[in-house]
Amino acid sequence: MRFSALRERVFRLKHLPAGELSTPLRRCLSTFDITLLGVGHMIGAGIYVLTGSVVRNTAGPSIVLSFLLAGFASLLSALCYAEFGARFPKAGSAYTYAYVGVGELWAFVIGWNIVLEHMLGAAAVARSWSGYLDSLLGNVISNSTIARTGHLHEASSFFGDYPDLLAFLLIVLVAFFVALGSKVSTNFNSFLTILNIGVVVIVVFYGITFADFSLWSGVDNQGNSKFFPYGVSGMFAGAASCFFAYIGFDGLATAGEEAKEPAKSIPIATFSSMTIVTLSYVLMSASLTLMIPYNMVHPTAAFSDAFTMRGAEFASYAVSLGALFGMTTSLVGGMFALPRCVFAMADDGLLFSSLASVNSKTQVPIQALLVFGFLTAIIALLFDITTLVEFLSIGTLLAYSIVSACVIILRYQPAYNVDEGQFDNGGKLRFSIPFCKFLDQLQPGHSIYYGMSVMITSMFLSGLGFSSGYFSGSYLCQAFLLVNVILVILSFLFICAHYPNNTPLDFKVPLVPLIPALSLLINTLMMVHLAWITWIRLAVWMGVGFAIYFGYGIHHSKEEIQDSERFSKSSTYESVVSGVVAGATSP
């Protein structure tokens, strides 16, 4: 009984009335503001820092296709986010979506990882910004810092080579702008993003004047394709790396509670920003790889170095400024989203209530910004950027996967039709399945959970088989892999055998359950390719999170309080009724 009660508590759903838009935050953001917030968050360290290393070491000119593939994978997740943005226009991003879709415990898992994602992402961008400026100044900053403080480590370590004071101060400065209010911070972001887009235009149109199409065609001296110097597998490996250049779009959903018309603004801003960013990535990487041979691309200052090699000093300086602008907007986007995710969890009672306090003048969750902004600055001060980037991926992919799963689950739940005064057929089986009569006895929509559980488990096991090479081993391993692939297909067909609901929304993901299932499959395959140290990081971070949730959150959750109030009212009503009945029947 105790286990049953605990299960009900940890998997309870958040009750969010349809059309509920009340919020302590200020609704002042237009679709244009939110679009530029997404563009600024994504076009930053991703294009200026990531591109050079992927071209040089992983994909070569085929990075153009890598960005297209990564953009497609991100678009599948973005479609799911856009539907939830139209369905639940509240702050919290995937956290809120999971809360209303699959329950409180999963919501906490996602929210806790998103908080870390934004902290690590902001810290990594700040370290990149500092390193880029340092390289432009001839390493003056790093050399002078090391001369005064010494090295943080002598051998390989999680820590950086020196305490990055510039990165620390940069995060403090950006947090100050974010604390002034959402309109101030988004105006600052919009200004820098427009400048950054201007730099992108310069890179593309001026860089194309140096284009040498022979760098893309034919074979090199070793007989390798010039466009695919690392093979098609290198292009796919590049796509896996480039995927994380798109992680900023999930920050758009955190602005839902401050958008003037969130049901329309979030989907439009999501697609607009994804289109702008994908085109920018593809055109800039094409321009770069047509200017100079891929093996001459600088791994960290790719564009400025390429223009310098071509004798275009003015363009080199413009790109350097654009890189700083781009990384600044990426940092603003991360610091904007971070306190709002913390606020959403604290406002629901899953984190300490003091973190939900909102400043009366700026209407910003100021305490959440101070606490987690300071932690982010400390991380940027001490930790190595490579370590930070390695830790970024799993939380992002986990969030994307849960949102995709939630889209399927919510589409196949019964919806109440006000006009007809009854529930629709959502979640009901279209026909009886032989040897599965027990399914007909389940409540509508409940069997979807069984189908999703089997599909996710089979996807994960199949991904492990492919990533580990077990499918090429013994016949037993091949049979195990084949069984899991068949289970994925059967569970998908089982979900298709249910009626979807007829809930009216401003935007819906097309071809459900195909698109969310495809998104879930791609994200799962990427997750199983992550390094073991990333999973260890997840285990440690989640250990801290579960201690907070089971020690505090489960007892202070708003849903817990509301359940207690409903139980109290029900008990009081029953006592009154019992008393009346007893009085009426007593002699």
Automatic annotation (TrEMBL):
GO function terms (MF aspect): amino acid transmembrane transporter activity
Domain Cationic amino acid transporter C-terminal: 507-557
Transmembrane segments: 34-51, 63-82, 94-115, 165-182, 194-215, 227-247, 268-294, 314-343, 364-385, 391-410, 447-467, 479-499, 511-532, 538-554
Keywords associated with the record: Membrane, Transmembrane, Transmembrane helix, Transport
Main location as per UniProt: membrane
Pfam entry (one): AA_permease_C
Subcellular location, record wording: Membrane
Keyword Iron: no
Membrane topology: Multi-pass membrane protein
GO cellular component term, pick one: plasma membrane
Alphabetized PANTHER family for the sequence: CATIONIC AMINO ACID TRANSPORTER 4, INNER MEMBRANE TRANSPORTER YGJI-RELATED
Name this protein carries in UniProt: Cationic amino acid transporter C-terminal domain-containing protein
Organism per entry: Caenorhabditis nigoni
Phylogenetic placement of the source organism: Eukaryota, Metazoa, Ecdysozoa, Nematoda, Chromadorea
